[in-house]
Amino acid sequence: MVEKGVEIKAPEGKLGVLTPGMGAVATTFIAGVLSIRKGHGKPIGSLTQMGTIRLGKRTENRSPKIKDFVPLAELDDLVFGGWDIFEDNAYDAALKAGVLDKDDINVVKDELQQIKPMPAVFDPEYVKKLNGSYVKQGKNKMDLAEQLRDDIRNFIKEHQLSRAVMVWCGSTEVYLQPDEVHTSIEKFEKAMLENHPAIAPSMLYAYAAIKEGIPYANGAPNLTVDIPALQQLARELNVPIAGKDFKTGQTFMKTLLAPGLKARLLGLHGWFSTNILGNRDGEVLDDPMSFKSKEVSKLGVLEYILQPDLYPDLYSNIYHKVRINYYPPRGDNKEGWDNIDIFGWLGYPMQIKIDFLCRDSILAAPIVLDLALFLDLAQRSGMYGIQEWLSFYFKSPMVAPNLYPEHDIFIQLMKLKNTLRHLRGEELITHLGLEYYD
């Protein structure tokens, strides 16, 4: 917790942004930031760079940019690094990802070629559809985690960084349920020494980051930090954590539309969603157990937004289906189709159709940037543990025990901005508007 108007440490020096996974999302993010630095593009989609925040009453006309309101790290101070199962530097990886045009990548070719991944901690048992030779070897999972900690320390030293953050940009792992070994850090560390199957590679990255005092964000639906052991460790070491699963395409649309249906008290019979995509993420999700992780992340959205227990006449009998299909010709250009069967006055049926031709990594890149900058801000503000105010960026937001996650994107945005107002000692915006009673 923080006190109102807390003292925030200045963002002095360089900030390292470490990404487990240097594929489509990470290279699009890195190349984009490098291009923006050179004036070759704008940070479209980034709340930290383009968003404003209203302060005080509407009549005061105070709406500064967020980056001018809170002390965020400057883009020029970001230093990029990460891990991957393929040895390609960021330039070659960006070309292979096929998200950005070659001309746009070439603008920052020299810088990208200097960014080379470190060997990854990887086990094909957790990501069935991928295999790579650029991986670490260790006697057990604790040893592998210690190697990651060495990587972090060496990266910070080599680049003379003052601090760092880690944002998972790797693949979706197979579906894991919480296990007894996840219930405390003591059991977790013992399980690492014993190579317990409930300890996935992503957990080793999170463990290494937290042990090194580095904020961690989980951009995939993996279980990772959504377990008591690592949450306990984050609290003990005063490290902010956030997750999970970047809210980009189809789920982004659901969190826009579902609150509107609920606001107008329109009923819902069913919501059928299907996707095609051909990037590495699509290939990984072609495995049923990896898809299970994604499916669980996607399916919870409607139930939490629509609250069928409170509105049984409208939402107690929804049929919600999600499908993802790997289709290589489409590459990173995902297409999501939604068929929504709603009903209104006297129960008369209506339909909504959505065909969202999106670019997955283009939508994810500004999320990576914002999470890196906001998590760094959180740590400099003395915040630690689960950062629920960052739910705005996730499909399946982490929350404290015994709380339900907030999925309504408009409530999430209000919570995020009110957190920033709170940090700076500004009055929270409630939109109550009692001026007629003054």
Tell me the CATH superfamily of the largest domain: NAD(P)-binding Rossmann-like Domain
CATH architecture of the largest domain: 3-Layer(aba) Sandwich
Strand order of the largest sheet: 3-2-1-4-5-6-11
Helical percentage: 25-40%
The computed structural class is alpha/beta
CATH class of the largest domain: Alpha Beta
Number of strands: 11
Mean pLDDT reading: 93
SS summary, helix count: 16
Chain oligomer state: single chain
Major sheet summary line: 7 strands, parallel
Distance between the ends: 33 Å
User: Which radius of gyration do the C-alpha atoms yield?
Assistant: 22 Å
Description:
The chain is α/β, with parallel strands linked by helices. It folds into two domains: 295 residues, 3-Layer(aba) Sandwich (Rossmann fold), CATH 3.40.50.720; 108 residues, Dihydrodipicolinate Reductase, domain 2 (2-Layer Sandwich). The protein contains 16 helices and eleven strands. Strands 3-2-1-4-5-6-11 form a seven-stranded parallel β-sheet, sandwiched between helices. Strands 8-7-9-10 form a four-stranded mixed β-sheet. A hairpin with a 5-residue loop joins β9 and β10. α1 crosses α15 and α8 packs across α10. The longest helix is centred in the last third of the chain and has 21 residues. It is globular. The mean pLDDT is 93.
